Amino acid sequence: MAHDILQISPLPPFMLKALHEADYIVHDHTHIKDPGALSKVTAIVGTGSAKVDQKLLQMLPHVKLIAICGVGYDGVDVAAAIDKGITVTHTPGVLTDDVADLAMGLVLSIGRRIPQADKFVRNGDWVDDMFALTHQVSGARLGLVGMGRIGRAIAKRAAAFDMRIAYTSRQAKSDVSYTFYQTVTNLAANVDYLVVAVPGGDSTQNLIGHSVLQALGTKGYLINIARGSVVDQPELVQALKNKTIAGAALDVFWDEPIVDPELRRLPNVVLTPHIASATMETRQAMAALTLDNLQAFYEGKALPTPVPECQ
Ligand code: NAP
To answer: Which atom of ligand 1 is nearest to the CA of 151?
Structure first.
């Protein structure tokens, strides 16, 4: 039997193809022609940036599954979903390596100013000038805000660069030997590179604010591959303009895909368009896991990867 599902964010063509091949009737929320179709929908599919609020859920009386193709699900009102007997799934694990790879790429890019050096060569500036000296990454101090799947994978990579690793998380971990700091501010005061790897949402909103940036200091770099909401962006822009921190490398922003023009003009930043998991291999693995969750749901089997609140 074909099932009606609602697509609430853009999905890669290969994922849409797989959904069609699996016989799902996919309704695109932004181009819905027949509002009556909403009453037939039994599952929602979207990416990590998808917004699923009470208002949307009220329009979908028969939805029983929200399948997020991504590990972060801070755009989903999980409490409202649970209240309506809806389960939420996501795709943990399959994207961890890619996100950690990009985090290390950003550490190297901002520390060694690789994009700026590329621009220097392209512009022909090398002919008359020397590129300014940068800062060493090997052996530097790296602080992780979050020691979950991605935090651990970043730590593993940073260890190969002989970096001295410290972290903060809600609870200290007994199975890692890195230095634990109770607060983000204390962590920031003791590292050169502060890498954010916590979930978004209310509990981490603006976790990196004025005092954390002050503590990071004039030689410190901020790297954010988590969610834009975790960093107080206007405070960050001020800190970068006033050089009260050395620089920032960001994959995530407030109001994506619109990026504050002030931030875009700054010379001491590296900016990427939320691409931490954006490789063919990983996006295919994420799509496959999302389809596995959908299939299990419609076959009445145990869901492979429900979010922790729904376990
Ligand atoms: P995870 O395994 O659940 O780890 C999350 C970590 O954050 C845990 O160590 C947790 O602490 C810590 N944490 C949660 N709330 C905290 C708080 N208020 N203060 C301090 N630490 C807190 O998640 P993950 O798989 O590593 O993913 C992390 C996040 O990365 C995702 O939620 C997503 O938003 C983001 N992400 C971004 C991209 C991208 O494209 N840029 C791609 C994938 C993921 P405890 O261990 O003590 O509970």
So the answer is: 26
Structural domains present in the chain: 3-94+280-310 (3.40.50.720), 96-271 (3.40.50.720)
Q: Rounded to an integer, what distance in angstroms lies between the CA atom of residue 125 and that of residue 264?
A: 21
Per-residue pLDDT band for 47 (boundaries 50, 70, 90) equals very high
Distances in Å between the Cα of 58 and the Cα atoms of 84, 86, 108, 294 are 10, 12, 46, 21
Q: Return the structure tokens found at 229.
A: 């909401």
Q: Are 310 and 87 in contact (CB under 8 A)?
A: yes
Q: What atom in ligand 1 is closest to the CA of residue 169?
A: 21
Task: Read off the amino acid at residue 82.
Answer: I
Interatomic CA distance for residues 62 and 106, integer angstroms: 43
* Mean confidence (pLDDT) of the chain: 97
CA distance 299 to 311: 18
pTM of the complete model beyond 0.85? yes
